[in-house]
Amino acid sequence: MTCIPGNNLASIDVTILSALFDAAPDVAFFVKDAAGRYVTVNESLVNRHGLNSKADAIGKRPRDLCEGDFGNVPSEQDEEVLRTGQPILEHLEMQWNSRHEPVWCVTTKLPIPNGEGQIVGIIGFSRDVRVPVQTAEIPEGFARVLDDFERTLTNGVTPSTLAEKSDLTPQQLTRFTKRIFGLTPTQLITRIRIAAASRMLRDTNKTIAEIAVACGFYDHSAFTRAFRNATSVTPSAFRNQE
């Protein structure tokens, strides 16, 4: 990784970066200091948190802007990146938009080292996954298989089985899902299962165990782990969110 010259974030022209990402309304961009506090953000991040201006975010951590796990988990991610120097790449998760609407995002966070190799901050972005897909735009075989999976949520579905049933090679499937959805096949499968589960949690009185089975998870524990990994909250907490 190319080191940022200097001993702190002052050497980075964060104003230019912020202005650049203001032109990307579906991407929440940020730079944070060694304590995980926002140094700069773009307008999309301001809107996502329902803030009035960028100044409302500067100097604060995610947990200061969003209550519960939707704020705590990103802060814990930051602490891990700052402690280990290991990036978070293409992590599929759910976040709040304007504090009331959960949206799917793919998040990347990179550590910022100074000239001596010390981690002095984090730079990253969270991209909304909102690409519309029309049946006419995708191969007929895949359209049929995806429709069947979304209706049945069969367990045991993997990228390999999706590719085989769609008459696509694994490489073709990967290129296709990345181009259309901006997701890997594995991320797409997870998104479909968790999206269905989140709808059931909000719109039905089914128990969490019943929802786990209906969405293709092997048991309650596996469902809870997968749901929390993707959304940053447990199924129970998600159901109780206002």
From TrEMBL:
GO molecular function: DNA-binding transcription factor activity; sequence-specific DNA binding
Keyword terms: DNA-binding, Transcription, Transcription regulation
Keyword Nucleotide-binding in record: no
Residue intervals of the HTH araC/xylS-type domain: 143-241
Pfam families hit by this protein: HTH_18, PAS_4
Gene3D superfamilies named in the record: Homeodomain-like, PAS domain
Keyword match Cell membrane: no
PANTHER family named among the record's database cross-references: ARAC-FAMILY TRANSCRIPTIONAL REGULATOR (PTHR43280), HTH-TYPE TRANSCRIPTIONAL ACTIVATOR RHAS (PTHR43280:SF28)
NCBIfam families reported in the protein's UniProt record: sensory_box
Name of the protein in its database record: HTH-type transcriptional regulator ChbR
Name of the gene: chbR
